[in-house]
Fold this protein.
Amino acid sequence: MPTEPPLPEAKRDPLRALCAGVLVLVGMLAVREIASLLVPIIFGLFLALVASPLVERLVRHRIRRSTALGIVIVAVLAAVALAVIVIAVSLADLVD
């Protein structure tokens, strides 16, 4: 029973490229579909990464971790509110 010789590299490359392209497209579509879930998770991880050193510093100053976390959350919310107010005032000045 004769066996077929393996495909030369030149004939396998288009198939590999096609498979890779399909996988990339499927991956992009999957990320697009779950983006509404990924964005808040990634934003939360970013905030946790930024807030962690501040919480640790407050804990070293003998403030309970839960209280320190509350202080940091209030400070972050105040900073966001301040940024929104500054942007709103700037936009209002631009319109006038």
